[in-house]
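Bumping my old thread because nobody answered last time. Still need a sequence for this structure:
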């Protein structure tokens, strides 16, 4: 069955992998990102994808973006847009702290708010939030990211209760480290913060807590999202689906 899927942060990393996967399976994908030029490159490489450039931290831009696709509103929303900043709280720029919360928590809430009326009218909707292991546990120097991802899980539970009378589900996928450009940038930041080499950061900070000691693959992540969109998952809602190589089992 072909559905319209709106994906934020679609120009790179996890969002790009999801876009590629769903276009390949015949879905109508609306790839969204902050930067128009990134989306133009994406359109050149992936045939048939529709794109929207807007800031997920801006309520008016969200409303305009969703209004522009009212002819075929998304049946699926994947809240994926994200960013990271690594710093002790005393040195954390306030504007950067607020930006992380605005993009990864408030933005996800505002987008969900914008797509819900059409989902309710059709009595169908699937919302998947790309969370993180840091929605379940904490690490030092990532206070804004950890706060946003913890908040995303609580938000999802509330909306699961609000949408219980419709065929709408909302869940949060919580992977540990996925090898993406965002994680590559974190390696450099953590190396500087901890006074370690990049290889030590990977071995001692990122993979050491995971009994399986390996990065989560994009294929694992996209496969989990696909499952949450399937009929087999229609009664899975308000849940955190953890892909962490055994990290939280300890």
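Sorry it took so long. Here it is:
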């Amino acid at each position: 069955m072909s559905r319209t899927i709106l994906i934020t942060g679609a120009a790179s990393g996890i969002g790009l992998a999801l876009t590629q996967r769903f276009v390949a399976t015949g879905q109508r994908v609306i790839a969204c990102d902050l930067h128009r030029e990134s989306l133009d490159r994406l359109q050149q490489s992936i045939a048939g994808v529709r794109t929207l450039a807007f800031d997920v931290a801006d309520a008016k831009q969200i409303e305009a973006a969703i209004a522009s696709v009212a002819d075929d509103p998304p049946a699926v929303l994947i809240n994926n847009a994200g960013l990271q900043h690594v710093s002790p709280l005393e040195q954390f720029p306030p504007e950067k702290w607020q930006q992380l919360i605005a993009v990864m928590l408030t933005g996800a809430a505002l987008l969900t708010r914008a797509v819900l009326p059409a989902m309710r009218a059709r009595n169908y909707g699937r919302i998947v939030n790309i969370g993180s292991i840091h929605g379940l546990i904490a690490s030092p120097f990532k206070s804004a990211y950890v706060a946003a991802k913890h908040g995303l899980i609580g938000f999802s539970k509330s909306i699961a209760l609000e949408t219980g009378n419709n065929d709408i589900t909302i869940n949060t996928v919580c992977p540990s480290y996925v090898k993406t450009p965002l994680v590559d940038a974190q390696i450099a930041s953590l190396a500087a913060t901890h006074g370690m080499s990049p290889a030590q950061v990977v071995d001692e900070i990122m993979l050491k807590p995971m009994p399986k000691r390996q990065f989560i693959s994009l294929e694992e992540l996209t496969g989990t999202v696909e499952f949450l969109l399937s009929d087999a998952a229609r009664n899975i809602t308000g849940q955190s689906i953890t892909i962490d190589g055994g990290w939280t089992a300890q």
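The chain is about 45% helix and 15% strand. Let me know if any region looks off to you.
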